[in-house]
Amino acid sequence: MKNVYILGDSNAKYLVDPFSDEEYFHDIYIEDIHLHVRAFKSFTAYQVNEEVLDSIGFEDNSIVLFYFGYVDIRSYSMRYNNIEVVAKQYVSRIKKYFEGKNILFGFIEPIPSANKEDWISVQPSEIHDWISGSVKERYIEHKKFINIISSENIFIPIIGTVLDSYYLNLSHTEDFNHLNIEYNNLILDYILLKIKDLQAEIK
Asked: What is this structure's pTM?
């Protein structure tokens, strides 16, 4: 049974349990995969560090996938104009942490930050004070972030695969932050498919 970890913000929780309000620790078994989902509410890629990673207790010979970046892009990218610095630091800290360890790690593209009512023109003052810029502006920042994390050996894209019609179907958003169950199920299925590909490569 292969141990697979998905670490992310609350969108990671929505992959497996959209209804729980608890701090998010979920262990589920899917065929020959023991999936550990560790979701940190409102957590950023910027906050991922050695202390956070030490708290997980990764099993040897496992696969670890990181699903952060959504909060950085949604709340801070337009305020601080530093998303590329954040992405490089995010990747660098994780690579350093797993150096010499018998663990495969990679990155999942965060979902794009959108609003189901008006994805182009909505401004932060019209929604929440923790939203940075318009959705169109944030999508530009999203692409900057992805350009960096996608250069790593293991990268699971969401846009262009599961969410190729995302911007044409904004009514499928559960709320401002989360996709509905239908889309989260599709994302999880795609992630599991890519995990099986990885398992086949390392056997």
From this structure: 0.87
Question: Are the C-beta atoms of residues 58 and 64 closer than 8 Å to each other?
Answer: yes
Domains and CATH numbers, the chain: 2-202 (3.40.50.1110)
Residues in the chain: 203
**Do 198 and 154 contact (CB within 8 A), yes or no?**
yes
Summarize pLDDT for 29-74 with one digit per residue, the tens: 887 889 999 998 889 999 999 999 999 999 999 999 999 999 999 8
